[in-house]
Amino acid sequence: MSDVVRESYRKWIEDHHFDGLSVTLTSKQIVDGVRLDSIILQRNIRYFKNILNRKVFGNSYQRYGNELKMLFIQEYGEDVRYHTHCIIEHPQRFDLKDFEDLIRDIWSNKTLFGYDEIHIEAPSNQQRKEGWLKYIMKSKTKFDFSLSIDLENSTCFNLR
Fold first, then answer.
1. Which residue, 23, 1, 31, 130, is CA-closest to 84?
2. Would strands 70-77 and 34-35 be described as parallel, antiparallel, or unpaired?
3. What is the DSSP string of 21-67?
4. Which residues, in sequence order, are CB contacts of 47 under 8 Å at separation 6+?
């Protein structure tokens, strides 16, 4: 992909940027003989997102459409397992430790392909936030950069 196109995506994402936790969710590569691919990973992320929103918002998630702002970007390569880099809004009514525990529990124990290797960081300053965004927008370990941005599950773009 050309640098111009990648830069356009980066700018578009920056325009929709929000404060949140920097999260990496790793995935099991094979479950019950089923090999993970980008479509299955996208479904697994949707399931994770739905459970997390239900835990945070209860019935108002489905009834009123309340949901956390989230950005999901898939990565994988020949010698890199499928994983997803995310920015997930931190709801103020949850303290950081409890929310991290909730994310870990849902990903590892409630999703089929969730693996227990999870990294979560609350960026301490603007430089860390910008660094994370730059890191997740790198082209390395993205087969097709434009397809790596999970537009279906990301809720920060107001596409609905």
1. 23
2. unpaired
3. EEEEEEE-SEETTEEP-HHHHHHHHHHHHHHHHHHHHTTHHHHH---
4. 110, 111, 112
Q: Are 72 and 45 in contact (CB under 8 A)?
A: yes
Model pLDDT for residues 9-36, shown as the tens digit of each residue: 777 777 766 789 999 999 999 999 999 9
Tokens of 19: 């404060």
Sequence-distant (6+) residues with CB within 8 A of 27 are: 36, 41, 44, 81, 82, 83, 84, 113, 114, 115
- Give yes or no for a contact between 74 and 151, defined as CB atoms under 8 angstroms apart: no
How far apart (Å, rounded) are the C-alpha atoms in residues 51 and 103? 10
The answer to whether 83 and 75 are in contact (CB under 8 A) is yes
Which is it for the CA torsion 104, 106, 107, 113, positive or negative? positive
What's the pTM value of the predicted model, to 2 decimals?
Answer: 0.88
Share of the chain above pLDDT 70, in %: 89
Say how many Å lie between the first and final Cα of the chain, rounded.
27
Separation between Cα atoms, residue 103 and residue 79, nearest integer Å: 26
